[in-house]
Structure formats: structure tokens, C-alpha cells
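Anyone able to model this chain together with NAP?
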Amino acid sequence: MGAETHFDRVALIGLGLIGSSLGHAMKRGGLAGHVAGYARSEATRKRALELGFIDSVHESAAAAVEDADLIVVCTPVGALGQVASEIEPHLKKGAILTDVGSVKLAVIRDMSPYVPDGVHFIPGHPIAGTEESGPDAGFAELFDGRWCILTPVPGTDQDAVEKLSAFWSDCGSRVDVMEPKHHDMVLAIVSHLPHIIAYNIVGTASDLETVTQSEVIKYSASGFRDFTRLAASDPTMWRDVCLNNKEPILEMLARFSEDLTALQRAIRWGDGDQLFELFTRTRAIRRSIVDAGQDTPAPNFGRTPKHAAKDADGEDDQ
Ligand code: NAP
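re: yes, here you go
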């Protein structure tokens, strides 16, 4: 990891899983001269300072961004417009303003009106996460080997994009640049849909009357357990993702429903060949993900029995 100071002063707005991980990654690599932080609650602000991933804590987002060269807004997507309006008058000319939100078109819609001339707004999304949230959830290695997607709008200063890319690289990420609309479509299938399906299947299981809830918990097989991990993700974050990536999610859900109907029919008609062909194709996708270094080939997703019980080390690209 390059021990190079990329920015004299960085402001983190939102100090949960992603904000704290970014703070730790900056400390690990010595990437920032000073990290200023702000979160909504006093408790989070106090905890962030105790954990040491920020150098100073502030009473408002506006105070935190004063004189910052890089501002990373790490709040839920639904709060980004409001945060941008609060910090607008306090942004330094030449500063880079970015975010980590899981959707991009809505973020551009909500933040762009508040970007002053001379400030480089470059939306971003690290495809890395876990089902945990809050300042204690973060760790420096979260972004290692994971992709970070930047979605600059046309006309963005190329030097600023390169500066932000270099910063994310030294946080451990691999960086890609993408059209925001394409980002939202890709993420709808690789992240948003799996979470929605997980929320739905766990909801269905908890509503069943013929199987008691204690049986669901007692006999939970690995398939169900893995869904519960996704379904334990932060409700605020996922509410905001669903509300702000509506069209791509609905499009993918429609495709999913059609394919599920075909699968249902294959099961009803006893079409073993169709089932076998699908299950073989999907197995190959899993192998390609492992080959691309995006997951471990170890059985049970690399969980040791201790970790399996806690379900804490399964990484989850969001
Ligand atoms: P998190 O752990 O719940 O943290 C959210 C932080 O934002 C908290 O510090 C919270 O403060 C603060 N906050 C909420 N509303 C605020 C407001 N109006 N003004 C100022 N601060 C506010 O969430 P996270 O997982 O880090 O997610 C943050 C962002 O990263 C989201 O946009 C999400 O889409 C994106 N993302 C998440 C993941 C993931 O796996 N979780 C992965 C990639 C990207 P309090 O603690 O005081 O409430």
C-alpha cells in the first residue's frame, strides 16, 4: 500500500461501516494529512473519535468540510441531497466532492444542484460491504481487491478523476469508470435484486404457519442462513436503494419472475434436463467469480466453524 499523502484534509460525512472503513484505510496508508468527521448522532461522533479513524469531529457537516480538499459523503442515499445543500456554501474551490452511495443516477440528481463552480463532483461507489453498520463495523481491509466504480458526469475535470482514482487505489480498491445509468442497471442485478430476494425469502419463512419460527431458526440450513445474512443488512440503506433505483430494480424483478416461472414449470413437468442445464450453468458463474478473485474457493465461503456461527466474515458486495 503506497504511503503517500493524497489530500491534506479529508472530510468524512457519515461515519458508519463505509465511512469508518475509509477512515481506517486512510490511516493505514497515510493517505490524508487530517481526517475531519461528522455524523448525525452525538454517540457516533464520540465513538468515531475514540476508535481513532478520524482526527477531529464536528458539530455539523458544514463545519467538517471547511478547508477540506476531499469530501466523501457516506450517509444513506436518501440523505445525500440534504447533506449537499448544507455543505454547499462551505466547500473550498478546487475540492473534490464524492459519495459512496449504492445508486448513482439519483445521487447525481440530488447532489448536482448544490455543487458550486470550481468544485469537482465525482460520484463513486465502492463495491464492498458487510451486513454490519455503524462506526464499530469498519475495518481498513474492506476495500482490498474490491472494485470501486466512479461515475463522473460529462465535462468533469480529468485530473480530478485521476486523483480520486489514485486515492481509491491506495485504499486497496481496483477502480473502474462507468456511465451512471449503466452502473444502476448492473448493480440492480448483482446486488439490489439478491438483497430483495433475501428480504423476501426470510419474510416468507417468518410468515409460514405450517413451520414454526423456532423450527426455521433451529433447522436453518446453509442456504437459508446465507439469505438471512443478506436480509440482516441495514433497513435504512436498503429502503433508500429501493426507492432510488426503482426502474432498473423493477426491470430485473420482471426478468427474475419470468425465469422463476420457467423454473417452476420445469419442476412441475419433471423436466430434469432443464434443471440440470441451469444448475450447471450457474455453477460455472460461481467458478468464474472465484477465478476473478472476488470470493474464496474455500468450502462454506471460507468460514471457519467459529465464524460460521457468528456469520461475521462473509463479505458482501453492495
Ligand atoms: P451506516 O453504517 O448505517 O452509516 C451511515 C452513517 O450516516 C452513520 O454514521 C449515520 O449517522 C450517518 N447519517 C445518516 N443520516 C445522516 C444525515 N442526515 N446527516 C449526516 N449523517 C447521517 O451505513 P453504511 O453501510 O456505511 O452506508 C453508507 C452509504 O454507503 C450508503 O449510501 C450505502 O448505499 C453505501 N454503501 C454501503 C455498503 C454496505 O455494504 N453497507 C456498500 C457500498 C456502499 P448516525 O450513526 O449518527 O445515525
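The chain has one domain: 1-318.
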